[in-house]
Structures
1.
Amino acid sequence: MSRSLIWYLRRHPLLYEVRFRLLSKNASVDRVENFCYNNINKTADIPEIYFELNPLIFEKTKGALSDVDKAKKIAIWLRNNIKGGAGLGKSSEIALIKMMNGEGGVCSDFSQVFNNFCVINDLKVKEWGLKVISNDPSLKGGHAFNEVYSKEFQKWFIIDVSKSLLFYPINPTIPLSIFDLVTLKNGNEKVSFSCFNENTELDCKRITDIYITSNSAPFLITNYCNKTYDSYLNKLNFLPEPIVHGLLFLLGKSYAFEFPKYK
């Protein structure tokens, strides 16, 4: 199939919007708060390459790490070893291999491989997207990030893997969850962010535009079974990835975009 047709199926604005609407639905705040990627994706279902690379992430670590520090370690290693590039949409094993080989990786690719590293390191994780409405072409389409649960703080906190970010109230103490961020934003209160990777160049204006000043709506990515998607993407690798995703939607095995419905 020609490259232009594959681009059309994957990236054309009209088809993108149709797919987005089909996958989107409202959900209660309680459902979103209680959902966890780990509930669907077990350690035994994660591809072997994640276990092979995992020791490299923690090879210089001495002593036990907090959940926040463990999540930061994974994110730093990914960001420092993957230069990023075009979106992939491959199975989790192939995506990680391509990313390590310098063959691509956008924010959603980082978020998805981060999910699997969290699972094998006993970190509760979920993946979020931001639907950004803006006249700025560079902001349209949105952004992907994660939340990890901290047992020490007994709360979820945002971690942006592709940009190496945590978010805080104006006096940094405990990192913010997505609900904390939305509450502060809606109350016109100040939000700060901090880069935890010295090798990551911080674009403060873009981060502020995406997360804080833009008209944006967060949505949780639910029902993503990594084992199922890997199986179909690998077996049907002769088809464009959007076709495989469409097939899984028709089979009732697709992920969903759940927008928390605030009271």
Note: The first strand starts at residue 24 and ends at 28.
2.
Amino acid sequence: MQPEAAAPAAPAKPRKPDWLRVKLPVGPAYANVRRLVDEHKLHTICESGNCPNMGECWGAGTATFMILGNVCTRSCSFCAVATGRPNEYDLDEPRRVAEAIQLMGVKHAVITSVNRDELKDRGASVWYETVVQTKQLSPSTTIETLIPDVKANWAALDTMIAGGQEVVSHNMETVGSLYRLVRPQAKYDRSLEQIRRTKEAGKRTKSGIMLGLGETKEEMYKAMDDLVANGLDILTLGQYLQPTKRHIEVAEFIHPDLFAHYKEEGLRRGLKYVESGPLVRSSYHAERHVNVPI
């Protein structure tokens, strides 16, 4: 009688490499931003998204504000933001965000939001007022808005991008073949159309893709070509990091040399600016993107 064959060992999970180490947030500038965010009862994607650059950015006196609450109607498999039925809809939020940005004295502010699919206008009116009131209180401050998928509500998109912001970003997050796994309630072509319509409205366009989810080089090249064809100006590329055990696992840790290669490829294929590196996130060095020619 032949002995039973041993079950094949599960493939080892990739170990986090040295180039993904970050410094803990410290210092008086970081503490000041921490205090202002708490006093004004604001949400930041820095915290909700477990961003690895929070120490660096907050230490420089900047933060990315998240409006429309901190509960998202989507259930993307990569994102650390809470999912559920939002009960927060604060029409006074634009004033509080604008005042906080003024108090911080930032030269460039980034504003993002959760998805609010249950709202008829996807939260567009709050988006518009946040940008307008920020500009009123801080006219010299430039603004990037990282907006969600409007689910083809193009009237809502028009309102979201009409407040006077200099950069409008919408993240693709991954390549087309992985959308059902990574962004099950989104559509690759719909996000491309949202970028195209934003460009047609005369805005400086930006998007971001996470690497290490199982994409191939050929799929990355196609995604960059698709983005260029739909009017994208600026692309950020960074390493996906699993926020909790409940989220999709990292398939691969991408070496910095490959990030450098993708930057060269993106520029060669027609993108005007590419920020590419393991720790790059959508808002990383965002102040540099406002001067990209359109």
Note: The chain has one domain: 24-288.
3.
Amino acid sequence: MTANKRKNRYTIAFYNVENLFDTVDNPNTYDNDYTPNGKLRWNRRRYGHKLRKITSVISQLGNNQSAHPPVIVGLVEVENAKVVKDLVKHKNLSNFNYDYVHYDSPDERGIDVALMYNKDFFEVIFSETHSLLLNDEEGGVDYTRDLLVVKGVLNNEKAHVLINHWPSRREGVSETENNRIKAAQLTRSVMDKIKKEEKISKFIIMGDFNDNPINKSIEEYLMSDDLYNPMKPLYERGVGTTTHYKEWHLFDQIMFSRDFFDTEKSKHTFLNAKIYNKDWLKIYNGKYEGSPFRTFIGPFYKGGFSDHFPVYITLEKDR
């Protein structure tokens, strides 16, 4: 590949960084385990090790296709603005002119979503969050992660980036399905509102959806003729980003407006989608062999990266 081609290619990535907590107790959230005296003995050394691991991955995403590290990175499971700032300022990333967008969400565990972006290629115009309103079994409010919406300009082309972290399957797949359908309806309603307000609106939708590309929340409530999900063909080939009881799931996905296929309507065209699942990101032996090499397995510290592999898409700038 020629140097000019690599310079005209841009990676957009998403990474669930699995409980990236600092070491300070927040009295308003359930973060006690991730403190020096907590159950997981989360200290500055372990936190620094995690930062080094995560930033080393981000710096390499798409480097076989693009001359640049990812121009946009969606993140979930970050505790606060401090941990995102520590990522962008880390020596593995500090040369790449990253900035970030973060809002505190009402999630009870204190985990949020965020956007990292390279200011050389992406300019933020506007950002906001939208709350997902859910109820628990007693009828009270079930606080969860917000939907983050960032309007920006990627290489002189406007786009909206929507970052999601949908409700988990912890209480059972069917028992929690309706919560993810509500999350899909929220994302779709925000998109529809933007489309009404703006004549031209391109979208990049990313997140940990806690559902696969073929599940109802995505197929029936989020996808439509205006969107393409490049993760679906990957899922149909049997690959995934995370495991549960040795079954692979592709919860981490990036979707985008079909205009990115059209050279007449877009300054960028879609090239491909990848799961970054290098061998050094995997557990190399034992009953979890081949699964993502995570920070903890249960209460036991393993010093890995995350329980999810990151994903990315590559766009080529045409003009």
Note: The chain has a mean pLDDT of 94.
